[in-house]
Structure formats: C-alpha cells, structure tokens
Amino acid sequence: MSESTPGAEPLVEVEGLEKYYYEQDTILDRLLGRDPVSIKAVDGLDFEIHEGETLGLVGESGCGKSTTGETLLRLREATDGQVRFDGQNLFEMTDGELTEFRRRAQVVFQDPFSSLDPRMTAGEIITEPLEIHDIAGPAERRERAIDLLERVGLSGDQIDRYPNEFSGGQRQRIGIARALALEPDFIVLDEPVSALDVSVQAQVLNLLEDLQAEFDLTYLFIAHDLSVVRHISDRVSVMYLGEIVETGSVEDIFESPAHPYTRALLESVPRASADEHGRRVDTLEGDVPSPRAPPDGCRFHTRCPHAREACRAEVPADIEVESGQYAACFRNVDDHPYWRSEPLAHAEVNAGGE
Ligand SMILES: Nc1ncnc2c1ncn2[C@@H]1O[C@H](COP(=O)(O)OP(=O)(O)OP(=O)(O)O)[C@@H](O)[C@H]1O
User: Fold this and answer.
1) Which of 240, 328, 297 is nearest to 61 (CA)?
2) 316 alpha carbon to ligand 1 midpoint, in Å?
3) Alpha carbon of 62 to ligand 1 centroid (Å)
C-alpha cells in the first residue's frame, strides 16, 4: 500500500518484504526426516514512510510488527523483497554505506528494563553508539551525553547513575537519548510506551513528538493498541498475520475504517456487542491463527463477521477506498461476486446479517 504525501519524499520504501523464520531446520531434524516449517512472520509488505512523518504500525501480538521493524533496519535478514532508504537499496549496500545507514536509522525498544545494560551508566549507554562509530573524543562525548539527557527531560548530573536508579519512564528517556546520539533521520519505535504506566505514557509520547519537530525525525511507530498511535501518527497501517490490511490517514482509520479487522481493533471488545443504536458492531473473536499455516484467501476470514465463501479463496489487491486510504477487503468492491456468495457460518452468527 502506498500513498503520496504532497511535498514529502519517501525516506523508506518497502516493496514485497518477506521474513520467514524456519523451525525443524537442524541437521537432526533432517536426519529424522522432518520437513522444515516456515513461519510467515512478514509476508509481502508494501509501504512508504515519508520524510518527517510518523507511520503507525498496529496489529495484535504476533502479527509481525517487530519483525517488520527489525527487518527494515537490517537487524534481521529479509527472506525476500526490497527496502530502499533515501533511494538506496538497503540489501545491496556496501559496508561503508551500511555503516552510514546504521548511523541514520535507530531503534527504541519496548522494554526499558531489559534493553539497557544494567552495568553501564546512563552516560556510557548514551555515548556507546558514538564510540562504535568513532565519533568525537571522550570529553566531547560526555558533553553530548549531558546535552542529550537534558533534551529528553532528565538532568545532566544524572549521567553517572545506573539504570536501576531510574524509573521506567526515565529509563525509556535514556533509551531515546541513546537513539538520538548519532543524530539519526529515522527511528523505529517498537512499542516504546507499552511497558510504562499510563500516566507516564503521555509524557513520553509528547517528548517523542517534540524531538521529532526539533530534529526533523521520521518515525515508524509500532504498537498493538490503536489508541496509542492516534495522537502521534500521520498515517496508520494495520497489520494482520504478516500482511497490511489497511492504510490511511489517522482521520480515515479512526473515523471511517474500511477493513473489518481495523473496525474490530477499534472496537477492541473481545465479544460481539452492539452500539448505542442496538446495531451489531464488528468485534474480535478468538486468537490470531498460527503464521505456520495462515488461512488461504483473506487471512482474516476465519474471524471476520462479514466473511463470505469468496473470502476463503481470494483477497483483493489493495483498493483505494478514499484518496490515500487503501483496504484489502471485498466489502469495498460493489460488483464483486463476494456479494453473491454465501456468508460463512461463523459470520452469520457474529454479524447478525447485513
Ligand atoms: N526468532 C524467531 N523465530 C521463530 N519465530 C519467530 C521469531 N521471532 C518471531 N517469531 C514469530 O513470528 C511471528 C511474528 O512475531 P513478531 O514479534 O514480529 O510479532 P509482533 O506483532 O511484533 O508481536 P509482539 O507484539 O508480541 O512482539 C510470531 O508468530 C512469532 O512467534
């Protein structure tokens, strides 16, 4: 799915990205005659992130969001597909180009408790990337660390403290300062506030927004909870079982979602329910099927309250529902055989008719 934002060039362009993990793939498995099992964690993604924008990537746990972020930073090798960063093919970079990419693209992880080395001081954590990239001498690095601590809302005199002397929110601020040390252009924020108390989440989100404006940053913001991405994202892509099912502006996704999965995520009530007018609304039943054997056709059909026979075999290419809003669902195609095929049994029960 792609969309052009006037005036902004794509910084990250993803085409047909796939990342499969393999199980039962050891020599012993082969000796025992076991076939390798592929886990299709990311299975053909197309999207763009424009300079200066925040793309929210949402979906339930296990949909492949972290794998996407890690693969497009080349922290994991892709199985197939292409990623272009500032026009350059990420998978064909020379060592020198890759080093420069590693300076320009950073990541902030979810858990500020396990992602910071407990034996290193805040200053050492923040200056480590500068050391690795051989930037500045020790005194200048320390100066930069003090400056960064202050920019993320901590105090420069906390530089020699260890992670266990900080609260969760403060630790995440240290993680953010570390990500900023190399003056990057792009940051993957992988559930950066999910481990924090709700009261602290808003402060960290505000900080991320301020830093984006101050340093012209481009963000991929990963979250399982749509409400978290609402205020920080310009556009949102919704992911289900390794695929993007809908992309649109924040307004489109929240005001007129076009894919039943997006609607169900927004609803986020784990059972069928009714809106204030007594109409049935889309809700999520059951768990995400295993990416070892994803359903044929539309991967969401096994849980979709609108699924028809047609959805078991086929899924439409991304349909532009509104300008810049794309959804992969037959419900957005008026004259498709979808409308003439039988509803699936679970859909009849869940949707209560059209
Ligand atoms: N190293 C790995 N080896 C095998 N399978 C993996 C590996 N990492 C992830 N997976 C599987 O790939 C799928 C996608 O995982 P991923 O962590 O990318 O999803 P996610 O949407 O980020 O979920 P979460 O929010 O729980 O991290 C899951 O089924 C997961 O079990």
Assistant:
1) 240
2) 26
3) 5
Q: How far apart (Å, rounded) are the C-alpha atoms in residues 341 and 337?
A: 6
**Is the C-alpha dihedral spanning 135, 52, 50, 237 positive or negative?**
positive
The verdict on ipTM greater than 0.90 is yes
For the chain, give the longest Cα–Cα distance: 72
CA distance 184 to 103: 6
pLDDT per residue over 265-280, tens digit each? 998 733 344 444 444 4
Mutate to test the pocket of ligand 1, among 20, 39, 220, 228 (most ligand atoms within 8 A of CB): 39
How big is the CA angle at 186 (ends 10 and 88), to the nearest 5 degrees?
A: 50
Complete DSSP assignment for 263-319: HHHHH--SS-EE-TTS-EE----SPPPPTTSPPSSSTTTTT-TT-BHHHHH--PPPE
The ligand 1 site (C-beta within 6 Å) comprises: 21, 39, 41, 59, 61-67, 224, 291
Q: Going along 254-307, which residue ranges are E strands?
A: 273-274, 280-281
What are the E-state strand segments in the chain? Answer: 10-23, 37-50, 54-58, 80-85, 88-89, 105-108, 186-190, 218-223, 235-240, 243-249, 273-274, 280-281, 319-322, 325-327
How many Å lie between the centroid of ligand 1 and the Cα of residue 109? Answer: 14
Nearest CA to ligand 1 atom 31: 62
Structure token digits, residue 63: 């949909």
Token pair for residue 169? Answer: 């929110």
Pairwise CA distance, residues 218 & 72, whole Å:
14
Position 284 confidence tier, pLDDT thresholds 50, 70, 90 = confident
Task: Report the predicted TM-score, pTM, of the whole model to 2 decimal places.
Answer: 0.90
> Which residue did the predictor score with more confidence, 24 or 254?
254
Residue with tokens 């007018």: 277
